[in-house]
Structures are given as C-alpha cells and as structure tokens.
C-alpha cells in the first residue's frame, strides 16, 4: 500500500507515523507537515527528527500550509501546547535531524503524487484538511482519479472536543473540510465516534522501553506525557490519529456508515460534521463515516507494530 501522511505532529501524530513505519505492508512515500497541534515548521521538524531516530531518514518531508484557507494566520491554542507540550512531543528531547525538508511545497507534492499513482495512493490526514483542499483547488482534475483519503477528524454521533459541535481538526479549517467532503473524493472519516473507544495504557509504553532503543524510550516518554493529560478515569490515552492509519490498513475493523457529508462553516455550530440534507436521497455517497471499531484488535496491532519497530531500531544500533 502506497501512502502519504499529512500530519500536525503532535504526540498522537507521531504515534501514527511510527505505526506506519512499523507496518511492513505500507510503503510511505513522504510526509507533509501542517499546522494544528503545533505550528507547521515545528511539526515538520518533529517528523524529520522521528524519521532519523527510527532509521528512516530517506523518507522525504514537505512543508504544507501554515494556516486555514480563509484565515490570515494561525495562533496555536493553549490547550494544544498543554496536551502535546510546548515542543509538540511531550517536552521530550530528540536529536535534531541532520537534514532539512524538501524544497517542493507540500501541496505540490500531493498533486504530483496523485497524478503519478492515482487510485493506488492512500492519503492519511490527521490534522486540518487545508493541504488536501488546497491541492484540490489548485488542481481540481485530480479529484477524478484520486485514491482513498482517510482522515482523523469530525464527530457524528457524539459531541465535539473543542465545542459541543466540533472536533479539533475540523474546527481549525471547516471550509477545507467542507471542500474535501463535497469534492467527490473517496473519504473515510475516522472521528471521535471511534477514536475515543481505543485506549492505550502504560503497559504498552513499558514494553516499548524494554526494547532498549532510543526510539522506544522517546515514544514511551511522549505517550506517558500524553496519558497524563487525559482524564485519569480513562486509564490511558485515546488513539485518535493512529486510528486513521488503522482504518487505512484494516478497514474491516470498522463499522462504516456511507453518507453525503458536509461541514457547518459559520455560527455557533461551525466545524460540525453532518449529513447533507440536500443530498439525503442521492445515491453513491462518497464519505464513509466510522461509527464502530474493534478496539481490541486495533490496540494490539498498534502495540505490537510499534514494539517491533523499536526492537528493529535497537538491533540496528547494535550493528
């Protein structure tokens, strides 16, 4: 499976990246950074650092958009700095990568990759949808042959996590999400309806540390910080962004509801992901909304995959 990740890295984005790196069936063509949990340049640097730490420095990293379609800039929310740490990775120190991002803009990389691989390319986006919408606006012809897009974002059957209506990624740029949903592209929405059902505990981070690798220790520290920012009654952390990777890898783990989706862009309900009333009776809806998940299978696969990745990193260091 050929894949591009579109991340605002972020602790759980970093976990999603490691999940992909450890998945032998995925060929990661590149990573595009964006804003959201962090500023775009910070997210890009975090990706570069993680890739080098995991012995994957050959994977190219691109800088995406720095703010929403209809906003002049982006100001990081205080809650994002608290949940993910000022540096985006739980205040954990990583060695700065010895390479820089690619010169090509991230949006252009998305467009060229879709034109090259067409339906064979899967794009997983775990931040705001600005990069995807920008690519579709700049090159509208790619919508006809674009492969599956799996997003972490939205909430259909439960309240949002930044307002009663809106989930964080969608709320950052509701216009971009609306454009993506209504573009005709095959979209799978992995929202809070399922991401809050899968919980990772410190039992997993303990096993990652036991691999003896730097990557295992760093991700364990990052994830423990993230767990500490969750309600203690949960007993761990939600697997928001890794759930989108899981839906791309193993869609059979998810119960999906096909719908024509849209996004409210104005007023108190801005950012709400909801079925389009105008297209309620139309056939062939393009958005599959995840409403159920085999959380035990997902958590085990994430845990095992990351543990195997960190073990591989430890062996590479010994060699």
TrEMBL record:
Superkingdom of the organism of origin = Bacteria
Q: Does the keyword Mitochondrion apply?
A: no
One GO term under biological process is: purine nucleoside catabolic process
EC code(s) of this entry: 3.2.-.-
Keyword NADP present in the record's keywords: the answer is no
| Gene Ontology CC terms, in alphabetical order | cytosol
Per its UniProt entry, what is the enzyme's top EC class, as one word? hydrolase
Provide the leader sequence positions: none
One Gene Ontology term of the molecular function aspect: purine nucleosidase activity
Q: Name one Pfam family in it.
A: IU_nuc_hydro
Q: Start and end of every Inosine/uridine-preferring nucleoside hydrolase domain?
A: 3-298
Keywords linked to the UniProt accession: Glycosidase, Hydrolase
Name-wise, this protein is: Pyrimidine-specific ribonucleoside hydrolase RihA
**Whose protein is this, by species?**
Robinsoniella peoriensis
Phylogenetic lineage: Bacteria, Bacillati, Bacillota, Clostridia, Lachnospirales
